[in-house]
Amino acid sequence: MKTPKVLLQSLSLFVMLLATEAIANDKENGKRGIIINVGSSSPQKYVAGNIAYASSKAALKTFSEYLFNEYRKSGISVTHVSVGSVNTGFSKRNKDTI
Questions:
Q1: Cα gap 34→40, rounded to integer Å
Q2: Does this model's pTM top 0.85?
């Protein structure tokens, strides 16, 4: 049985939330740190069949913005990097919709 894309993308976002929680626990112990979340330009551009991936990356951006404001004075830096198009098989398969 093939795993649904929505489940895979949800797990990706969930794992990031767990990792962030671990760093937040360090914050409570007075430690400093850096969180770098890697996003995508996909939420800004419609690509057929890409709803789960684009939605998870949009959620990651919003989450990063909230983390930045939440932790800005605590010694934990939060950065969200949104990469543009990359020449991959995904781009080739969906060239008519990009």
A1: 19
A2: no
Which phi and psi (to 5°) does residue 80 adopt? Answer: -115, 120
Kindly compute the dihedral angle of the four CA atoms of residues 83, 43, 93, 87, in this order, to the nearest 10 degrees.
Answer: -10
**Is the Cβ–Cβ distance between 75 and 33 less than 8 Å?**
yes
pLDDT one digit per residue (tens) for the chain, 98 residues: 566 777 777 777 888 888 887 877 776 677 788 888 888 888 888 878 788 888 888 988 999 999 899 888 888 888 999 887 777 766 565 555 44
Report the length, in residues, of the chain.
98
CA pseudo-torsion sign 84, 89, 92, 94: negative
